[in-house]
Amino acid sequence: MSVYLDFERPVAELDAKILELKAFSSSATTTVAIQDDVARLEQKAEAALRDLYTKLTPWQKAQVARHQDRPHALDYVAALIEDFTPLSGDRAFADDAAIVAGLGRFRGRSVCVLGQEKGSDTETRIKHNFGMARPEGYRKAVRLMEMAGRFGLPVVTLVDTAGAYPGIDAEERGQAEAIARSTDAGLSLGTPSVAVIIGEGGSGGAIAIATANRVLMLEHAIYSVISPEGAASILWRDSTRAQDAATNMKITAQDLKRLGVIDQIVPEPLGGAHRDRDDVFRSVGDAVEASLASLDGLPPEEIRRQRREKFLAIGRNL
After folding, report:
1. Domain-embedded: residue 1
2. Using an 8 Å Cβ cutoff, are 174 and 199 in contact?
């Protein structure tokens, strides 16, 4: 069954009526009138959904970005990457399942893939620590980016995290230093790189693998220096004001495109990426392919220069 967000309640009620009528029509002797009612309600539900999603507030977009059925990094890898070979460990302490990494083929070209995986059920969420990486995760990312540079492989990253793991053990192992080195590795990479914010891009935990030549963002994803709840707790000492924080922080793809933080908005199916996974996989694949093609043939020095200028330009024209 579909999981509806609070603001989608009108659509949920219409869908429930549609299911009820369909169930009744399967046992009824005369179904013509019922089928007409179903078609009319389906049109009404689609119109209601379209109306809701054309005027989402930033806080509602945050809810969509966090939807439990939204596709995660491993879903995109399975859909877009052929012959994916996962690579594990930071060669210093351990492997961190919050960051999935490996090599594969994307539409005919070999690539290095990095992604933050949140998990899709209780077991996998615990395994992947809800997408919140520890230092060894970022050191694994550095290891793979350096490998990609040595072998001339483009890097594709899938960003989806509430932020880096804030636990004591992570701090003891140098969380801030690991994030900084991962960010620097992304900026120093001599091969083309494309980052896609597929859900929630939170804080330095996100930027650590998002310092790319092209930063793409799904239409209903969010990207910010802190979560709305965290910002509300700091600014007003009241986490219930997260809605106010989300509005003021400019966390949506539309705001960030206007501010020059991201390069392209990737459209989502009506109602969010979780409603039509095949469609969103296709849209992301096309956008990544076009971004990589625009960087083909550039020497490493030019790739680094363009990337550096891109990030230095953020905020200049505000």
Report:
1. no
2. no
The three-state secondary structure class of 276 is coil
Residues 32 and 91 in one domain: no
In a domain, 250, yes or no: yes
Token pair 């539409």 is found at 107
Closest CA to 203 of 224, 230, 181, 233: 224
Q: Phi and psi at residue 159, in whole multiples of 5°?
A: -95, 125
Q: The domain containing residue 274 runs over which residues?
A: 62-312
Other residues' Cβ atoms within 10 Å of the Cβ of residue 96: 25
Alpha-carbon distances of 191 from 5, 187, 307, rounded to whole Å: 40, 10, 11
Q: pLDDT band at 247, cuts 50/70/90? A: very high
pLDDT digits over 29-72, tens only? 555 667 777 788 888 888 999 999 999 999 999 999 999 999 99
Confidence of residue 302 (pLDDT cuts 50, 70, 90): very high
The SS3 assignment for 113 reads strand
Question: What phi, psi does 209 have (nearest 5°)?
Answer: -120, 15
In a domain, 209, yes or no: yes
Q: Buried b / exposed e across 35-44, counting CB within 10 Å, b at 16+?
A: eeebeebeee
Output b/e per residue, 141-157; b: 16+ Cβ within 10 A: bbbbbeebbeeebbbbb
Token code pair at residue 183: 């960010």
Cα dihedral across residues 180, 160, 210, 257: positive or negative: negative
Helix (H), strand (E) at residue 184: helix 175-188
Q: Tell me which H or E stretch contains 105.
A: strand 99-106
